[in-house]
Amino acid sequence: LIASAMMLAPASVMAADLTIGFSQIGSESGWRAAETTVTKQEAEKRGIDLKFADAQQKQENQIKALRSFIAQGVDAILLAPVVATGWDEVLEEAKEAEIPVMLLDRTVDAPEDLYMTAVTSDLVHEGKVAGDWLQDEMAGADCSIVELQGTTGSSPAIDRKKGFEEGISDASNLKIIRSQTGDFTRSQGKVVMESFLKAEGGANICALYAHNDDMAVGAIQAIKEAGLKPGEDIKIVSIDSVPDIHLAMASGEANATIELTPNMAGPALDALEAYLADGTVPPKWIQTESKLYTLKDDNQAIYELKKDLGY
Ligand code: GZL
């Protein structure tokens, strides 16, 4: 049976022959590092030759990498697009070269025929889950919220903001009083939280919504240095479910996180292999799951489980 299956798949489409270019944003967060680790594992598993390019969070570096992959004549491209706009020209070039592009964890504002599929979570839903959680947590009590936004112009920053505002839109007691980008990093999350505390005074801030856990972890440091108790004086909800946020939650220093799987490449490579094997065209959006974790969960155990997964 295997022999006949092998006969069915012409040698040219066997995964072992594939060379794929991966333009990764950088390593701005623990989650991003895990995505890189998992993507390399998924390629290895399939005998794929993965060409990896780290853009240090600069779009021009990603565009250069894509042009290099096209010149090399790779079989496909994986792209985690740092921002949503400015991709049409280079994606047209990839289309001209008949190289399928698959988007990982972020989307682009470009015509759908310029990419094969996008593997992402429902980023608006994540923000709404965070807003809904805070509304339940506050149970009608007044709460001034500060928000640490992700990278300006990225689809997660746009969508997670939109979803959170939807989640709190029917709660007149919840109000966002400050909102600024922390660029998805711990260092910027700390710096911006320090500025929020300085501007508002700790007593006036009831909660922090951070678009990712790394900015929340940086903010926790700032809250402690201001002599306040993170998780108690200031409630904290963020997104990614990286090990260190569960460590913070295990000691009550953060309150909730929404899980984002780092394995976007698995579904993308499955879709590519199906397409190459028999022309199956994947949907334009392959959605990954989102799961809320709170202090009711065994956060120490979750930390132990995740801490060796490449974050
Ligand atoms: C979301 C992803 C975000 C993560 C951050 O899909 O693009 O980028 O939530 C990372 O940790 O910087």
UniProtKB/TrEMBL annotation:
<feature type="signal peptide">
    <location>
        <begin position="1"/>
        <end position="15"/>
    </location>
</feature>
<protein>
    <submittedName>
        <fullName>ABC transporter substrate-binding protein</fullName>
    </submittedName>
</protein>
<feature type="domain" description="Periplasmic binding protein">
    <location>
        <begin position="20"/>
        <end position="266"/>
    </location>
</feature>
<comment type="similarity">
    <text>Belongs to the bacterial solute-binding protein 2 family.</text>
</comment>
<dbReference type="Pfam" id="PF13407">
    <property type="entry name" value="Peripla_BP_4"/>
</dbReference>
<dbReference type="GO" id="GO:0030313">
    <property type="term" value="C:cell envelope"/>
</dbReference>
<dbReference type="GO" id="GO:0030246">
    <property type="term" value="F:carbohydrate binding"/>
</dbReference>
<keyword id="KW-0732">Signal</keyword>
<dbReference type="InterPro" id="IPR025997">
    <property type="entry name" value="SBP_2_dom"/>
</dbReference>
<dbReference type="InterPro" id="IPR054837">
    <property type="entry name" value="YtfQ_transport"/>
</dbReference>
<dbReference type="InterPro" id="IPR028082">
    <property type="entry name" value="Peripla_BP_I"/>
</dbReference>
